[in-house]
Design the sequence.
């Protein structure tokens, strides 16, 4: 087991990273790509990457399974950045594949849900970062947090939990037709009592 007090940071090819989820919000990826381009223009890409280390779990065949920052990894891939720094939070490389995936799931290091919010078999998780598919509600959730709709929270995959809440209340066609209008609806929903069970909820209180 890796000692979390002594992180070891290692460069790994982005294209070799393994996802632990099925989707990303492509609008979120676009924002990360813009950040990378701005840093590159200032010749500070190295400093940028040094501040954005990707946590991974070592799995069978010593493959690096990403547990966070999927959007950054996808953005780096699309921007042609070859390597990214990773830190191993747990070494489970001795496990067989089925046991490994089961442990990932039960430790909250996996989110096997598709763009419709349906739980899928482990086999549905892409083998590469480039195969992650778009969930527009994940983009809404990310933008909503930046707007102050809810607070950043340590709950695993908290923004996916918000995405699923919004998916059930905002029509997908409405999101595609007018993202800004959908965001206004999302913000209103986020401040309502129906959302008070969600991680990071910061709606109005009587205190």
Sequence:
């Amino acid at each position: 087991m890796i000692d979390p007090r002594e992180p070891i940071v290692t460069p790994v090819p982005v294209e070799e990273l393994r996802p632990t989820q099925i989707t990303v919000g492509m609008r979120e990826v676009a924002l990360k790509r813009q950040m990378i381009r701005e840093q590159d223009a200032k010749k500070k890409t190295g400093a940028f990457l040094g501040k954005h280390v990707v946590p991974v779990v070592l799995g069978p065949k010593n493959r690096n399974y990403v547990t966070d920052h999927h959007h950054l990894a996808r953005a780096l891939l699309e921007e042609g950045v070859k390597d990214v720094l990773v830190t191993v939070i747990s070494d489970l490389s001795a496990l067989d594949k089925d046991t490994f995936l089961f442990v990932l799931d039960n430790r909250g290091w996996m989110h096997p849900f598709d763009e419709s919010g349906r739980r899928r078999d482990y086999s549905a998780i892409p083998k590469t970062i480039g195969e992650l598919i778009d969930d527009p509600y994940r983009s809404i959730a990310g933008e909503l947090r930046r707007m102050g709709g809810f607070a950043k929270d340590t709950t695993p995959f908290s923004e996916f939990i918000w995405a699923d809440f919004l998916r059930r209340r905002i029509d997908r066609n409405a999101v595609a037709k007018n993202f800004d209008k959908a965001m206004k609806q999302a913000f209103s929903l986020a401040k309502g009592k129906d959302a008070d069970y969600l991680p990071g909820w910061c709606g109005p209180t009587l205190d």
Observations:
- Residues 1-5 have pLDDT under 50 and may be disordered.
- The CA atoms of residues 33 and 78 lie 8 Å apart.
- Helices lie at 26-41, 45-50, 70-78, 97-106, 136-146, 158-167, 172-177, 179-190.
- The longest strand covers residues 83-91.
